[in-house]
Design a protein that fits this description.
This protein is an alpha/beta fold. The protein has 14 helices and 10 strands.
Length: 368
């Protein structure tokens, strides 16, 4: 490509010379680069959406989420013109040789989806900015599409968590123990899919460290990880949600902080508290304590009657909790429970894997 320059001397006293590139020549240089940027990022965003769409289709069987992914892909295809494709120069692209170790491993479906949402959002931001140099309406269109991807991410990640919550019938609530991580992992190996970190007296730096390690452990087994009481800690360690007691912050305030993709549970001890928690938007509730337990010292047992009431009236998942173990779980099931939460039964068990397997098997016997 030939280039012409207008050489105009400025400040003749010091003989400085400025080279002024003619507008047409400058545009001829910039245009191919912009086209290549747009082409590469259209490819990147469409590929990322397709990866997300496949999980919505085959992993979740969710037609609504599949439809949104497909719509976004088709809108991007509208902008992926032959003019942009013609600018592609794969052999001459230095970026094809670049990689990062994190790109070579995906530990869970959640990590895979999160990585591809980031990929799509970054690509769309590039398209939004460089698209303004190509066509003014492209920048506006990609801005709105990027917002739709944010909404899709919230809907999908929230749906993933809610689906796993509904499938979970055994809930482990932790208590301080020297062998906490091995005990939890032994239960996860047996099929446990829901864990809550509960520790009332430790310093915050210790809680952050333990919660982070537990979250990593739970997610490596595809299990949900919930933090007791502390919304700030749940956010700090990227937990799947928080469990609130009756004296903790209102559910609406917690929802503002956590968003709609994370789970919020509420402890209840009677029908009035149960109905209030449901009305306020809890994702699940604890029902108990069924039996007196040192975990809830000085709190009278709610009894099996409350379990039966919850079975008849709760419209959201609920977990019977409080003193439940291998000796009495069948009584709790007979009262109407399909889900139970335990603490000591697993944390203090000599064989936590076997105990977990037994509890899950008893709960699965009642499933249709």
């Amino acid at each position: 490509m030939s280039q012409s320059f207008d050489i105009t001397p400025l400040n003749a006293s010091n003989n400085r010379v400025v080279l002024m590139v003619e507008p047409n020549s400058q545009k001829a240089q910039i245009q191919p680069a912009v086209y290549r940027i747009l082409d590469a990022n259209l490819d990147r965003s469409r590929e990322g959406l397709r990866i997300i769409e496949e999980w919505c289709r085959f992993g979740l069987n969710n037609a609504q989420l599949v439809g949104e992914c497909k719509y976004l892909r088709q809108e991007l295809a509208h902008w992926h013109t032959a003019e942009l494709r013609a600018a592609r120069d794969t052999p001459g692209d230095p970026g094809t040789e670049l990689t990062h170790p994190q790109e070579e491993q995906r530990s869970t479906i959640g990590a895979l989806l999160q990585a591809n949402f980031c990929r799509v959002q970054e690509a769309m931001r590039v398209l939004e900015e460089y698209g303004k140099l190509y066509r003014p309406d492209m920048g506006r269109a990609l801005k709105q599409m990027r917002y739709r991807v944010y909404t899709l991410e919230t809907s999908l990640m929230g749906y993933q968590r809610h689906q796993l919550l509904w499938r979970s019938h055994l809930y482990l609530v932790t208590a301080p123990a020297e062998n906490l991580l091995p005990q939890v992992e032994a239960a996860l190996k047996a099929g446990l899919s829901l864990v809550q970190y509960r520790e009332k007296t430790a310093d915050d730096y210790i809680r952050v460290e333990r919660a982070t390690r537990l979250r990593e452990l739970c997610h490596s087994y595809g299990a949900l990880f919930i933090v007791n009481d502390r919304v700030d800690l749940a956010l700090a360690v990227d937990a799947d949600g928080v469990h609130l007691g009756q004296q903790d912050m209102p559910i609406a305030m917690a929802r503002q902080l956590l968003g709609h993709q994370r789970l919020i549970g509420r402890s209840t001890t009677n029908p009035e508290e149960m109905q209030k928690a449901i009305a306020e938007g809890a994702d699940y509730i604890g029902v108990g304590p069924v039996y007196e337990t040192p975990t809830k010292a000085n709190k009278p047992a709610a009894g099996l009657q409350y379990v039966t009431y919850a079975a008849q009236h709760s419209s959201i998942p609920w977990f019977a909790i409080g003193g439940i173990d291998t000796n009495n779980i069948n009584d709790v099931i007979a009262a109407g429970a399909e889900r139970v939460a335990v603490v000591r039964a697993i944390i203090q068990a000599e064989q936590p894997t076997l105990v977990t397997q037994y509890l899950i098997s008893q709960l699965h016997h009642i499933q249709p």
